[in-house]
Amino acid sequence: MVVSSKATQEFVPIKEVRDGIVILKDGSLRGIVLASSLNFSLKSDDERSAILFQFQDFLNSLDFGIQISIESRRLDIRPYIALLEERYKEQVNELMKIQTREYIEFIKKFTESTSIMTKSFFVVVSYDPAIISIKSKTVTELFQKKSAGEELQKKQLSFEENRTQLEQRISVVEQGLSRCGIRVIRLGTEEVIELFYKTFNPGDTEKPINSN
Q: InterPro entries attached here (predicted)?
């Protein structure tokens, strides 16, 4: 029996990430917003009710779909340990060196015995221009042959138009969440790529950091 192996990219619906926007293989667009959390235990009953009602109004005001994703990941303490190691090397006071070393060992043992998790909240805003673009074409346009330059220019113009529509939706989401007291940050290209890389390669966080 012959088993055909497929590249991982074939199972990922992402075509490219441009200007912080995820372009899927079907032509639809996605924008991702990082949202902060709210600690309800520190809120009064009136504040909780106000937040819930505000969030309900926000959801009811949307005329498009959104996705809310919660990522729970074990805290990667290695960068902090590496920073402490550098501070240890720079110390000239012997007492401070001893205290720094003891603190490093304490942090290592504590994180090894206890799983410290971090949670990130993402709001995914979508825009699907496929139906609109198909309806706008005439029979003549479908069979008309265009040059490579014309096709490239047309694709760029189409992307700009679709991005404008997506940006408007993202703005609505950002304003709605801000009214609920939630801080929001729009992810750029590098942040989006890093997010998906960590999602599809979760084991990389367990690999040791190479020290120079």
A: TraC-like_dom
